[in-house]
Amino acid sequence: MKTILISNVLLHKERKDVLIEGNRIKAVEPAGTFPVGDLGKKTGGAEKVGGAGKVAGVADKVIDGARKAVIPGFVNAHAHSAMTLFRGVGEDVPLDQWLRERIWPYEAKLDEEMVYWGAKLACVEMIRTGTTTFNDMYWHLNGCKRAAEEMGLRSVQSFTWLDHFNDDTIKENKKLLKQAHKESADWSPLTTFAVSPHAIYTVAKKSFRYINSYAKDNDLLVHTHLAETRAEMDQAEHEYGMSPTEYMNKLGLMSPNLIAAHSLWLSSDDIKILGDNGVHTVHNPNSNLKLASGYKFKYNELRDAGANICLGTDGCASSNNLDMIDSMKTAALLQKVWRNDPGATPLKELMDVASLNGAKALRLKAGRIEPGYLADMALVDMAKPSFIPNHYFLANLVYAANGECIDTVICDGNIIMENQYIPGQEEIFAKVQEVADKVVDYKKRKKK
Ligand SMILES: [Zn+2]
């Protein structure tokens, strides 16, 4: 089995040796436990060493961690990966106009190949900022899946269901869901199949019931948007006489299989429903702020009620980047200011929200640098102003740095970025520009 040793790396204020065997963490011991001699120094630190075989009989590959810290890979619990193609196209317009004039017309032009390239760019961006797993919701899921697997990332890819209350579409979606699910039997172990009813304002009541029983019968995760805007809440009250959360609860969706993105507009009854049912909620602070959806995410209340709180970026058309460190910072700052409590969302909790809790939601044993956990992790380059001095590493990571501090990323025991380089990234950049130019016609837009 392939082994990697990260020697003398900073972990929770101490220097450690982290040994990876196959796709799991095998050992975490005090630095120096696995002697590597001066081989690391000879090749200039983090370069590949011991190519001819195991180093000192310990590992196939040694990474010198002297100037680095190790953190669990981030789990981006709500993303629309291929929307990287629309980065910057819908600025400073209201949500309704954003959807009708920009996003929906552009999305109508997409095919699987375009989605594939958009998702490839998303993967590059996520890897570069330390994410090792993402929970995706987008069209042409096979394009997204192929991109994620090629880039070596773990992901949950879901069949996205919108029917706009149209019976023909509902019928067609049932067929397509079964077909996509069947095809997923051949997917790599890195990818999990799920189903995503988009939201209560785009999916019929009977569809929710069907999806729910299909997901339960097949033990699938259900990923949806819930209580994102005030308008959604008002509409539910008007049409169903209850909140979006109560409505989904009535339809039987509330369970530990549900991942509810946003969960922003909640009453105390709603919070109790989410907590009692062990629902996974995903806070997407940058998207919520940019689309002016709201900012009073009920972090303490949801946590205390028993809900699992995760973190996401949402798509690049609304949050513009996929940097989980950026999301962590915004999430923490928001809690502190709206609660008027500088102690809100302490850093250790925040780190779990961005990694361990997301892994839990996606049923993965990841999010910790401990023996037995999946070997999904990132190495932070500490030779940067943000980490000097290093009084408190997590404070430097979240409040001083951003995703560009990530140097090396390991997912499922494979090194997918080393020394900030991802093989093939130049081709991806060029190709995405080409695809984006086809989808978003600037000349035409200027004439309007
Ligand atoms: Zn979303």
Biggest sheet overview: 8 strands, parallel
Mean pLDDT: 93
CATH topology of the largest domain: the name is: TIM Barrel
| The named CATH superfamily of the largest domain | Metal-dependent hydrolases
**Approximate shape:** globular
Bound molecules: zinc ion
Structural class category: alpha/beta
Percentage of β-strand residues = 15-25%
Fraction in helix = 25-40%
Name of the CATH class of the largest domain:
Alpha Beta
What is the overall number of helices? 18
Radius of gyration: 22 Å
* Spatial ordering of strands, largest sheet: 6-7-8-9-10-11-12-13
Give the terminus-to-terminus CA distance: 60 Å
Count of separate structural domains: 2
Produce a short descriptive summary:
The protein is α/β, with parallel strands linked by helices.
How is this structure best described in words?
With 448 residues, the chain is of the alpha/beta class. It has two domains: 3-72 and 371-425, Urease, subunit C, domain 1 (Roll); 74-361, TIM Barrel, CATH 3.20.20. It is 40% helix and 21% strand. The chain is built from 18 helices and 16 strands. The chain has helices at 39-42, 95-108, 112-128, 141-151, 167-183, 205-218, 230-240, 244-250, 268-276, 285-290, 299-305, 316-319, 324-338, 347-354, 356-361, 393-400, 425-439, 442-447; strands at 3-11, 14-21, 24-30, 61-64, 68-72, 74-79, 131-137, 154-161, 191-197, 221-226, 258-262, 280-283, 308-311, 377-381, 406-411, 414-417. The strands form three sheets. The protein has an eight-stranded parallel sheet. The protein has a four-stranded mixed sheet with strand order 3-2-1-4, with no helix packed on it. A four-stranded antiparallel sheet has the order 5-14-15-16, with no helix packed on it. Helix 3 packs across helix 17. The longest helix has 17 residues, at 112-128. Bound molecules: zinc ion.
